[in-house]
Amino acid sequence: MLIGSHVSMSAPNFVLGAVKEALSYNANAFMLYSGAPQNTRRRAMEELKIEEAHALMQEHHIPLEHMIVHAPYIINLANTVNPSTYELAVSFLREEIKRVNVLQAKYLVLHPGSHVKAGEELGLASIIKGLDEAMQDMGHVEIALETMAGKGSEIGYTFEQLAYIIEHAKYGNHIKVCLDTCHIHDAGYDVSNFDYILDEFDRIIGLDKLACIHLNDSKNINGARKDRHANIGDGEIGFDSLYKIANNVRVKHVVKILETPYIDGNAPYKEEIEKLNK
User: pTM for the complete prediction?
Assistant: First the structure.
């Protein structure tokens, strides 16, 4: 199983520290942010101990494509209400793509954005326009649009919306999808029948576009459109369904990332990975 979790990237060891944290969970994959997800402050890439991190990954047989990078939450390409928010989103996404290339990661996970009550049609068009502007120099990086729960004015809570973006974006060949189990459950998909979910994903988007899976339980009932993660087996999805997803042979080659809550201030990832691997 290719599985890991979100890990921190903080001073003084940065990416090297992120790899060490992943190894402490017996993970063979991980996800990080290239800086704080809530703001634009970024350390110079030369400070992040990338070469040492790569060496440790190689020592433990973790390929570079098993390092997933998540774009910051403040990027909102769907915002047509505030031009400055949109312009920041485009310029910041362009810079994040450069940073992911330096990290030599393959996938940059991105929330499609929220239309801020302007309507889904305008939001979708704005996302496509923003991706076209930001993705002009991708290098080896691919964007992985994340499936969303449909909270507020979020876009990307249906497979059809994501397929529309990919189909109409200029660089759609560089766009894939990150499937979040909590989000699609909250959006109304029945993840207890994951093979049906995969069939629908394949029909609408294409399984070749599945870049990674965020494996999370949900505190909400199906279709609640709220987006509140729960620990594996402690939520409405349940352990059996998540175990079957983690071990489904059709996604054996796809990296699974845990984003479940800390328990009493401690990361639960080592224990959750162990349970899912049994």
Answer: 0.97
